[in-house]
Amino acid sequence: MLVPEKYYHIYNRANGDENLFRSEENFRFFLRKYQLYINSWIDTFAYRLMPNHFHIFIRVKTLDEINNSAKNNSEFAPSKILNFGRDEELSVAVSKQFSKLFSSYTQALNKQIGRTGSLFQKNFKRKEVTHLSYFQNLIIYIHSNPIFHGFTSGMRDWAFTSYQTILSTAPTSLNRTEVIEWFDSVKNFEFCHQQAVDLKQINELAFD
User: Fold this and answer.
1) Which residues on neighbouring strands pair with residue 128, listed in sequence order?
2) Strand, coil or helix: what is 30?
3) Start-end of H helices in 15-86
């Protein structure tokens, strides 16, 4: 379940040896779909898209926050005021939004490249994040993962991650302010990411 006001590490990968993203436009299209289906329901703190998998750090919004998003952003789902009686009902609704995201993206990619069938593994993974040190390590893990997998030698070199967005002052739907507060400052955020971290240890922490 994705419970309101709780923080989660969300991740999933492609079925078998396939790739989720086969071009730069595929990455961008997924992020646009994420904005459409997910942004009104959750706060996003960090993300990273890789060719065959992704990781996202989120907090589920309260019902009031979701309804405010609906009022202020009529082009995003949900497009009408919601009335859930229990947190369990809201949790199901949020999970369905993720399912809609994956289904919509899969249908578009299938049409584009002439494939059929499911693309993502059946059940996306979610792990509750419960303490500040884990918040920090998870964000570093997410931003370091392209290095861990050998795709790049520097965090700034991978385009489809939140690292540069957090350092930027440009408008964003990412919850940049709270991320910086967890690291105390932009300077310390950069410092922590530049340290010689044990990526294997952080990888194990992210999935234990």
Assistant:
1) 8
2) helix
3) 24-37, 63-72
Q: Spell out where 31-179 has E strands.
A: 42-50, 53-60, 125-129
Sign of CA dihedral 130, 193, 189, 4: negative
User: pTM score, two decimals?
Assistant: 0.88
Give the Å distances, CA to CA, from 190 to 46, 141, 163, 182, 184. 14, 13, 9, 12, 11
Biggest distance spanned by C-alpha atoms of the chain: 49
- The token pair that represents 118 in the structure block: 């499911």
pLDDT tens, N- to C-terminus, the chain (208 residues): 899 999 999 999 999 999 999 999 999 999 999 999 999 899 999 999 999 999 999 999 998 888 887 666 554 555 455 666 667 788 888 999 999 999 999 999 999 999 999 999 988 999 999 888 888 889 998 988 767 666 665 677 778 999 999 999 999 999 999 999 999 999 999 998 887 555 556 555 555 4
Q: Which two tokens stand for residue 206?
A: 């992210």
